[in-house]
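Study this one:
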Amino acid sequence: MSFFKNQFANVVEWEEFRDDMIFWKWSNREIKKGSRLIIRPGQDAIFLNNGKVEGIFQDEGDYNIASEIIPFLSTLKGFKFGFNSGMRVEVLFVNTKEFTVRWGTKNAIHIPTPQLPGGLPIRANGTFNFKVNDYVALIDKIAGVKESYYVDDIKLRITSILDQLLMKWISKEGKDMFNLQANAFEIAQGIREDLDMQIVNDGMTITGFNVMSFNYPEEIQEMITRTASHSMVGDVQRYQQISMTDGIASGKVQGGGAASDMAGMMMGMNIANEMLKSMNAGQNKPAQTDPPAQTAAPAHNNAPASEGKPKPNFCPNCGQKTGEGNFCSNCGHKLV
């Protein structure tokens, strides 16, 4: 007799569970006497009868439906199993975890900007998070007509309006179009609120939205990089000197030695000119007036006037290092 006692028993459980599945419906089957309900971690089980919620069970475990579940159902609590009779209900299993989804713009978004008549084309990528938070709304809008629902269904819905929201929040006044990453948090917060309004009526909520990066076209990115480099250096002449030095140090300035020699000579001339300017500036300072009692010069001072003018270490004409002579050994320029 024990064989016949449990021959109609079955197990109500999430048979097709996947990590990317939001809900799954156990339906079109009868629950017999001796049937069990299995709820695993991260799952809630909702009993439905004629589309209405009979009971919600959230604690994981293995339950006897006749003795531990039916007494808590709204309209079916008085149901009695007979030998050959069962109860036909639907059980909706809901994934309770928070889902994380990666997103990215498929095509460049052209943001209006005065600097570019056709708009600034940018791409963006990041992540968003969502979870189910209202079972009644979920059943009324989605689960009532679907047997299952996946993360990709939500992703498709979100990304279909994401480009419009990005344009809306990027175009807000005060945004630096060439440094959008500085405003990424503010932009993401605005988009999260708008997206939440799109799915809240379906029983879900956006719990987070993040913009990881904004990407510009290659030529615009190079322009941004150059502009930043110039700003960091301070002036173009200094930037050119640093670029020349980096080129020589890295070996990029080549050409059988001629290019490097020319670059070295130019650097030497620049250094010599800077030194000469510094010395001339020092000589042009007004001389200090000595007290009257000390104005007389020694009578024996017969040193030539040229000794009062210091000789530069580099020729101001060609940049050649000077020796002990009064004329440059390379170009003949007078040094003193």
